[in-house]
Amino acid sequence: MNTPLAACVALSYPVAVVLGVTFEIPLVPLAVLASLILVAAWASLAAAGRGVLAASLAVGISLLLLGGMATWLLYTLPVLIMGLLSLLFARSLRSDSTPLITRYALAMGASDTPAVHRYTRNLTITWALLCAGLAIVSAWLALFATATTWALFANGINYLLLAGLFLLEYPLRRWLLRDEPHNGFLAYLMELARVDHHRMLRHP
């Protein structure tokens, strides 16, 4: 996958949603979403597969527009994304599983101590609750707020809140887990990028 290109397309999607919903042109965000899917899958597909995927996306967008379901899909996606993220964190809190953030912490060299387990479990709970709350608010705004208000929150502010928690958690962890090794935020990001995310998500 072309990561820089995928990142650029992904960052343009919230802007496209705001413009598309505000000016009632759902084709704009749908086209950006289809482009993101293509970019993400491009490297893993053969030439024929790329053509099939592109044609399928074009047909899907046409059917959504003709059936008047395009805007419904745009309103549903943020709720599904946040709901699935909440479920991802929450299901790892089962008694027969390891909390998701605990898995990452241990894989990145954290000590296997009660303090680390307690902190990372509480942080996993925090992420699950935040994502669930954002899903609920997005759904409520979709039903009762103006289209522009919903678009700005569900496709902008909610991701800023996620980013805020991610950024603020690092200094908090350094303060609460003073005995753990800390090499700086940039080194932390580089180490996080090197983790086998597929293995982390498959871990019981």
UniProtKB/TrEMBL annotation:
<feature type="transmembrane region" description="Helical">
    <location>
        <begin position="75"/>
        <end position="93"/>
    </location>
</feature>
<keyword id="KW-0812">Transmembrane</keyword>
<keyword id="KW-0472">Membrane</keyword>
<feature type="transmembrane region" description="Helical">
    <location>
        <begin position="26"/>
        <end position="45"/>
    </location>
</feature>
<keyword id="KW-1133">Transmembrane helix</keyword>
<feature type="transmembrane region" description="Helical">
    <location>
        <begin position="52"/>
        <end position="69"/>
    </location>
</feature>
<protein>
    <submittedName>
        <fullName>Ketosynthase</fullName>
    </submittedName>
</protein>
<feature type="transmembrane region" description="Helical">
    <location>
        <begin position="150"/>
        <end position="168"/>
    </location>
</feature>
<feature type="transmembrane region" description="Helical">
    <location>
        <begin position="125"/>
        <end position="144"/>
    </location>
</feature>
